[in-house]
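Bench notes, afternoon.
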Amino acid sequence: MNLWGYALKLTGWKFDINVTLCDKCVICVAPHTSNLDFLLGVAAYKSIGRKFNFLMKSFWFFFPLKYLLRYMGGIPVVRSKEKHKGSLTEKVIELFQREKYVNLAVTPEGTRSATDKWKTGFLYIAYGAKVPIFLAVLDYAGRHILIDREFIPSGDAEADMRLIREYYSKYNHAARYPEKFIP
């Protein structure tokens, strides 16, 4: 067990993986209602010696924080259409094609606030890059982080999202702030 694993254990959290992770995948993480979710995700993934990538608003990539975020696997997301040439989805698919190892963690809600409209970009990324999606849960009620399902996107984002939301519906009260999680 490494330092990250000890940190989880000392804080009363456990982390289980019931799938075989691969070098290229998307990790769908939900529920996402707190900034603490990011730290728990980092600790969990680092506890098994793996690196991951994540998308974050470009706002956070300022000196000197940008060096730390990029080192940790951060990919800045530029929201402005003028500054962002080409779609983010296409750019991330190109990243998967170019690199040997990409484990992209995404939060389908796209916000820590309550929303019933989940983002579908991760489905298009996984489908376009021909990589699996692993479903991860942050269960605050049970102090348990879990990756237990591999999902292969069909290309029908609406149908895929329905299945993914159905999976997360059994974790309706797992969020740090359950009132903000709408599966």
